[in-house]
Each structure stands twice: as structure tokens, then as C-alpha cells.
Amino acid sequence: MTSFLVRRVVGALVILIFISLITFYLFYAVPRDPARAFCGKICPPETLELVRHNLGMDKPLFVQYWLWLSAIFVGRDFTQFGPCPAPCLGYSFATQEPVFSTIVDRFPVTLSLTLGASVVILSFGILTGMLAAWKVGQPLDKIASSSSVIGASLQIYFIGPLVVFLLVDTLGLLPRPSYVPFTEDPLTWFVHLLIPWVVLSIIFTANYTRMTRSQMLEQLAEDYVRTARAKGMSGRSVFFRFAWRGAMIPIITIFGVDLATLLGGAIITEQTFTLHGIGELAVRAVLNTDLPMLLGVTVVGAAAIVILNIVVDVLYAFIDPRVRLN
Q1: DSSP H or E segment with residue 82
Q2: How does DSSP assign 261-322, residue by residue?
Q3: What's the predicted TM-score (pTM) here?
Q4: How many CB atoms lie within 10 A of CB 272?
Q5: How far are the Cα atoms of 40, 105, 288 from residue 28, in angstroms, in the given order?
Q6: What is the pLDDT of residues 223-262, one digit of tens each?
Q7: Contact 23/17 with Cβ under 8 angstroms?
Q8: Which of 50, 79, 146, 256 can bridge 312 by disulfide, Cβ–Cβ 3.0-4.6 Å?
């Protein structure tokens, strides 16, 4: 287990460095000048050169990247802003605020959106898929399969405003979606995020329903399941004690990627409901040519994907005894 984790952590660091390097290079490949974006529309040439010097943009590209990378571990002293303690991701060109603290401030919004939607996705998606596999060919199976196709065909930017119009503006059953910190008022936090959770989970739930159903049917056709039935075990015991464990392996793999993607920023959902999370922060960074913020969000999203993939690999051994980490 220890050697496995060490190998994965080292590999994760290499991947993160590679992703940050690619993002850093691609940003400078665009024709827009980052220093001009920081300086503003009306910026004299001498002021523009001073800004480039203060931000370190007059140095070679590799030196700029090395300064950015080393600042994560040891910090950096900016002429324009002053000292930036580790972990330092620089200062935003648009707001002149520290990138790391801005991401930390936005992270609870995205985390709340992700965790709530994940509970809905796993609860309804896996349960509905298992029931469809249990009643394969029966009306329940047909209803679940048809509903999953419809759900997968919908789009968040369409059903989001529609649900808000029906439940908030027309019926007045729920308040308009917004973010209230969980530590201040848990009930208000839950009620105000209920609509985004449901809307975000509709598409994912449909996919997990279909995936769970197909995986369960595949596992029920395996030799070890037929052997268990031949030994006299009931269909219910075989279904819930054996088949579901094998079916969960690919589902956990996909869920790890989906969860990491949501943590990296549910961009469409946050834009639809005006939730100021990491996804909305990424959009603004792209529009404003905000290199430090764009790099920070990219690295955070990539780190979430890499870390959760490691967690998924470790979970394999606990769910399926046929899997060994070594």
C-alpha cells in the first residue's frame, strides 16, 4: 500500500507540473498582452513597460514559469504587491487580490454544490439502476430506462431557468438559488441550493442509472454468480451480496472523474444560477486574460482530478477482493 501511494503521488506531481507548464505556454501563445490587461485600456508605453518589469514579464518565459512554480512552495516577493507567502499562486491581474485566497473563498460554494449533487446522483442513479436490473424487462425497468434517456438529453442551461420559473416565480415553493454559508444557517444553505443540486444531478443521474443497470446485468451473467445460484443461494442474496460489488468498480471510476470535474468548477451550473464558485471564477479569468487566476484554477482542478483518482484506486481493493494494489 505504501509503495503504491508513493508511486501515485510522484506521478501526480509530474502530471500537475506538466499541466501547469502547458497552460502557462498556451496563455502566452494568444495574441493578447497580459500586462496590458493588467494595466488597463489607457496605458502609456512607459507605464506598460514598468508593469511588465514589476510582474516579471520582461524575463524569459521559462524563468517566469520557474518563479511561478517555486512560489507555491517558498512564496515570492512582488514589486507591485509586496510579499506573497506560500502557497503563492500570484496576484490576479483583474482584481489585484491573491489568487490562492480568492480560490479558497470561492471553494465552499463549489464544494457545497458538488457534495449535494453527488448525494442525489448516487442515491437515485445507483438505486434506480439496480431496481431496473432487478426487474429487467418489466414496467419498472422500461420506465427507468426511458427516463434516463430523457434525462441525459436535457441541458442545464435549459432546465435550470425552467425549474426556477416554475418552483420559484410561479409556485413560490422554494427561494431563488443562492449561497449561504453552512456554518451560518444549515437549513437556509440546504433550501437555497436544493434547485441547483436537483438540476445538476438530472443529467448525471440518468447516466448512472443506465450504467448501473448495464453493469448489474453483466455481473449477473458472470460464472461466479451462476455458481452461487447453483449452490442454492437465493436470487436476492446473489444480487445484493455479490453482483453489486463487481458492478460498482466502473461506476466508482466514473464517479471519481465526475466528482473531480465538479470540484474543478461546475461552470454551466454556477453561471445558470449566478453562484460565485470556482467555475464562475475560471470564466472571468479567461475573459480578462488573467494568467495567475487561470493557472490557479487549472492547477486546483487538475489536483482534484488526480487526488480523487488515487482515492478511487485505493477503494478498488476494499470493494472487490479480486483487485490488489500491488
Answers
A1: strand 82-84
A2: HHHTT-HHHHHHTT--SHHHHHHHHHHTT-HHHHHHHHHHHHHHHHHHHHHHHHHHHHH-TT
A3: 0.79
A4: 22
A5: 18, 27, 14
A6: 777 777 777 777 677 777 777 777 777 888 788 777 776 7
A7: no
A8: 256
